[in-house]
Known about the structure:
Elements: H1 14-19, E1 21-24, E2 29-31, E3 56-59, H2 65-78, E4 83-85, H3 87-103
Parallel strand pairs: 1-3, 3-4
Antiparallel strand pairs: 1-2
Amino acid sequence: MRTALIRVWREVEIDQVRKHLLVAGELTASCENCQHLGIDFFRCGQCPQCGTKFEYISVRGKDNRREELSLIGRLKENRPDLTIIDYDDVKRASGKSKAHDLLGG
């Protein structure tokens, strides 16, 4: 049976996701909680600076969709402990959450 990667949507508490999010770039990642840079996303289970345990990982937007899917495939294989989420979804939900807090809604 052939498998494929697809996006699955579910409701999550955005502040909890951001607190435990590792954002992968080309070679290293950053902790979304404290913004610490240079984290080895294939090895680190928690932030070396703030100690936050990573539960989610996101790939910072890539121009080439094929490269992004390749990295996601490697993450899926090497980091089955992390839930892979879409970075644009996180940014959008965070923006809405911040606006809601600011406007007192």
